């Protein structure tokens, strides 16, 4: 779908994704006139942390993620992404998943290397060789989750899977595919009633 097209209809969503969508629409989506990080203007703004940082939101998010990744969740060792977008997703989903019988470890990728103590950009319980689900709250261009994947790989772990609460731009899929990463966004801009990139 090109950026100037309007989605004809929403894709069919599972009950868990529909519950997440309802939460995002109620708490994370704002309408008006906004200047995006890219400098472009938009008539909608997404603050997905408003979903990830609420108790009912993180439960809806975790249920949706366990549904979407149910076929591979047993293969995943750790979950994390670039701070700050990936943090509430990774930490919240790990905690909720533990109550569902899944043993995941979580971590964060710092934006800059830490000079003292344990150095480098990885903070948390990531271990070399881990099969990783890379997380982010939302993405437009795809650069943050891809940057996280590169740092995870440099650490010696394997960024095998990737997800975001909302894919706003529609470009991350091709970037992830080029790196051999299985990318499964939970929701997309069209799921919220908007065209990609608007």
Considering the chains and any ligands shown, give keywords for the structure.
single chain, 198 residues, alpha/beta, seven-stranded mixed β-sheet, two-stranded antiparallel sheet, 6 helices, disordered N terminus
Structural commentary:
Helix 1 runs antiparallel to helix 3 (55-68) and helix 3 (55-68) packs across helix 4 (86-99). The protein has 198 residues and is an alpha/beta fold. It has one domain (15-192): Rossmann fold. The strands form two sheets. Strands 3, 4, 5, 6, 7, 8 and 9 form a seven-stranded mixed beta sheet that branches. A two-stranded antiparallel sheet has the order 1-2. The protein has six helices and nine strands, in the order αββααβαβββαβαββ. The termini are close together. The protein is globular, with a radius of gyration of 16 Å. Strand 6 (131-139), helix 5 and strand 7 (158-167) form a beta-alpha-beta unit. The longest helix is centred in the N-terminal third of the chain and has 14 residues, at 15-28.
SSE order and pairing:
Elements: H1 15-28, E1 29-35, E2 41-46, H2 49-52, H3 55-68, E3 78-82, H4 86-99, E4 105-114, E5 120-124, E6 131-139, H5 143-155, E7 158-167, H6 172-178, E8 182-183, E9 187-188
Parallel strand pairs: 3-4, 3-6, 6-7, 7-8, 7-9
Antiparallel strand pairs: 1-2, 4-5
Helix pairs in contact: 1-3, 3-4
Strand content: 25-35%
Unreliable segments of 5+ consecutive residues: 1-6
Structural class: alpha/beta
Share in helix = 25-40%
The rounded distance between the terminal residues' Cα atoms is 12 Å
Q: Report the mean per-residue pLDDT as an integer.
A: 91
* Overall geometric form: globular
Give the H and E element order: HEEHHEHEEEHEHEE
**CATH topology grouping:** Rossmann fold
Number of domains: 1
User: What is the C-level CATH assignment?
Assistant: Alpha Beta
Total number of helices: 6
User: In total, how many beta strands?
Assistant: 9
CATH architecture: 3-Layer(aba) Sandwich
Spatial extent as radius of gyration: 16 Å
* Main sheet summary: 7 strands, mixed
Oligomerization state: single chain
